[in-house]
Specification:
Blueprint (H helix, E strand, L loop, with lengths): L13 E6 L2 E6 L5 E2 L4 E9 L5 E6 L8 E2 L2 E3 L6 H13 L3 E14 L3 E12 L10 E7 L10 H13 L3
Parallel strand pairs: 4-9
Antiparallel strand pairs: 1-2, 2-3, 4-7, 5-6, 5-10, 8-9
């Protein structure tokens, strides 16, 4: 997250002040306030017709070389559902349909700052995976054979999904 030092409206230096019970950067000249809002992310919990879970080994940070669920940042003008399906298509060439919302999560990232992560349960009819440059590999696995997922958020999403939607 970019932290402003100068007001983007009038160019004056920003000072820290307590506003709405939080320390925020504020312009003393024009009263502009810098609200540090989270970046929106969508994550896909994808099952194939056999009930196997799609996991991917990431080729970029954050989580370089880690096994994770597919997902990424939302683009301007798209809904979380659209962004989730777009990211799935970009990373794996899979077309899916959203079954349900798993949950919304907050995460702090060293690279990006505050993230708001929305996770969806997705079903794909044709589970033929073709990865792009963002992944080293991706495949569907039975739950007992999933590679180790060390990203806490992704483990939480998998756990929440399995508790809400048991096979």
């Amino acid at each position: 997250m970019h932290t402003y030092r100068y007001c983007p409206v009038c160019g004056s230096e920003l000072l820290t002040a307590e506003i709405e019970n939080r320390n925020r950067r504020r312009c003393t000249a024009c009263s502009w306030i810098h609200y540090e809002n989270p970046l929106p992310v969508a994550v896909a919990y994808v099952l194939n017709p056999e009930g196997e879970l799609l996991v991917a080994r990431r080729a970029h940070h954050p989580g370089y070389n880690e096994w994770a669920l597919p997902g990424g940042f939302l683009e301007s003008g798209e809904t979380p559902e659209e962004g989730c399906l777009r990211e799935l298509k970009e990373e794996t060439a899979l077309d899916g349909s959203i079954d349900s919302l798993i949950g919304a999560y907050h995460r702090e990232s060293d690279l990006y700052g505050s993230l708001l992560v929305v996770a969806y349960k997705i079903t794909v009819a044709n589970p033929v995976v073709q990865i792009n440059h963002e992944l080293f590999e991706a495949n569907f696995y039975p739950f007992e054979s999933i590679p180790p997922i060390r990203l806490t958020l992704h483990r939480n999403i998998i756990s929440d999904a399995r508790n809400r939607y048991p096979l």
